[in-house]
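Annotated sample (chain length 162).
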Amino acid sequence: MSTWKIREIQAEDNQQVRSLIREVLVEMGVPKVGTAYEDRSLDDMTETYNAPKMAYFIVEESGKVIGSAGIAPLTGLEEEYCELQKMYFLPEARGRGIGMAMMQHCLDFAREQGFQKCYIETLPYMENARKLYRKTGFESVEKPLGNTGHYNCTVFLVKDLM
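Output written by the structure step:
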């Protein structure tokens, strides 16, 4: 039986989520500029995702946030595309099927919101993340879509949600 659960973020989770995301980005050697590390949205994720067709989810285990991910309209292509955003997991969450469960949870939400496609940007050395994306049907595209502001991300993937 799993001891973790996926739920929508609450205000009291904000600090743990901000710390989790920055910790994982540092662990992965991600540049602090031009990536999610410098996003102002990390300061208040509940406020950032408090808008139509947006949601941010956390994985909680024993009162601790061990993973998170969100869905939002892709800036510039809002009608058709959503973006999977800020999907990160602490080491203790990895290799347990939690990433796959979170991915399905996010994609189900995206479909419920009427999005036709989901977009992701990542980095080439985030190999486990890229494996998960491909396993769930994401395919590479040659150039970035929309306007995410993450100019250091160089791997672009799209999944048809229909």
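Annotation: The mean pLDDT is 90.
Annotation: The CA atoms of residues 66 and 91 lie 8 Å apart.
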